[in-house]
Amino acid sequence: MDLGAGVFEIRINRTQRMNALGVQTVKDLRQAVHEASAKDARVLLIRGSEQVFCAGADLKERKGMSQPEKIAHNAQINELFNEIAHLPYVTVAVINGLALGGGLELALTCDLRFAASQVKLGLTESRIGVFPGAGGTQRLPRIVGKARALQMMLSGEPIESEFAADIGLVNAVFSSMDLDAKIHAYAHMLATRSPGAQAQIKRLVNEGLDLPLPQALALERQALPAILESADYAEGLLAFEEKRPPRFAALNRK
User: How many CB atoms lie within 10 A of CB 79?
Assistant: First the structure.
């Protein structure tokens, strides 16, 4: 869904299966992401339909799969999630309802997460004899810390969105009635910022977290000359001088 000004929204609409990630749903999500990117998205919102964000992998569908099919399905989910995680523009999970297992892992791939009030979130895989296999064991500790992540994954017990905000798992919580209006307004604000600067911020944060601080700071310094010579920075300075909003160009993704 094109919300204008470079803001796009993808809604998972498989309510009869709690928006679970079946094989076709994963293919459809991947296609939707590619279409948004092709249209020069600046902000991508990922949201569930009805009262569910995503209940994770479709376990009913998976039960009938052979072992190679299960592995292939997991690989397809991981490929989708990795693509979302590496998009150069801003991604936002709009957690409108239940987000469990792979559904929470999907939210973890996004840059930002906002949730409706009293929504349940959890990596519940240990309750059925498996571990989070779509990035959860790696992404969750990087967001909430090792101890909190282990507590959530080892117990498999969901938490409510208000507590998720307290531990930094979600950025903010809004009432279900206000959620879309708040996020759409925020997304349109984000879309007015420099796409080039946002892409560099994402890259530096993501790459720097895996480096010792001196190397991470060196990485930041290495990126400065190009950004200071960029058209966006020149436009930002001119707009500041002329006391007007800047008009930033679309990000070159080639």
Answer: 13
> What's the pTM?
0.94
**What are 206-252's pLDDT values in tens digits?**
999 999 999 999 999 999 999 999 999 999 999 999 999 999 988 77
Q: How far apart are CA 114 and CA 202, in angstroms?
A: 18
Using CA atoms, how far apart are residues 121 and 169, in angstroms rounded to an integer?
9
Give the active site residues. 105, 125
CATH superfamily for domain 2-190: 2-enoyl-CoA Hydratase; Chain A, domain 1 (3.90.226.10)
- Smallest CA-to-CA distance from 203 within 108, 90, 115 is with 90
Fold of 195-242: Lyase 2-enoyl-coa Hydratase; Chain  A, domain 2 (1.10.12)
The answer to which of 59-63, 80-84, 152-156, 220-224 has the lowest mean pLDDT is: 59-63
